[in-house]
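FORM 7B: Structural annotation worksheet

SECTION A. Query
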Amino acid sequence: MKKFVVMLKDKKAGELTQELLIQHIEHLRKMNDEGKLFICGPFKDNDKAIQIILCESLGEAINLVESDPFVKEGYYATYEVSELLEANEENNWLIDIPQTKDNLT
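SECTION B. Predicted structure
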């Protein structure tokens, strides 16, 4: 599975209803139960939130984001989805991948 970082942005603070919150939590629970939610939560600035989701493709990640009631109802006006290349000891902190080599001067 690939990891995708989702940035939910431009929150409409003050417009959250209890019903919308419950729908959003149900969506998160479903993703968690399916093994697709790695981590999620809002930032302290109260304008953005992050989700790291596990799925096979960018298209699947976008579908998951667009099915989130917070996005469908416009509570977060915009979002970005990017695939994460996780650096760790097992992959030598990505030092040997083409992307890293292409960035070297």
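SECTION C. Observations
Helices lie at 18-33, 58-66, 69-72, 98-103. The longest strand covers residues 2-11.

SECTION D. Sign-off
Analyst initials: ____
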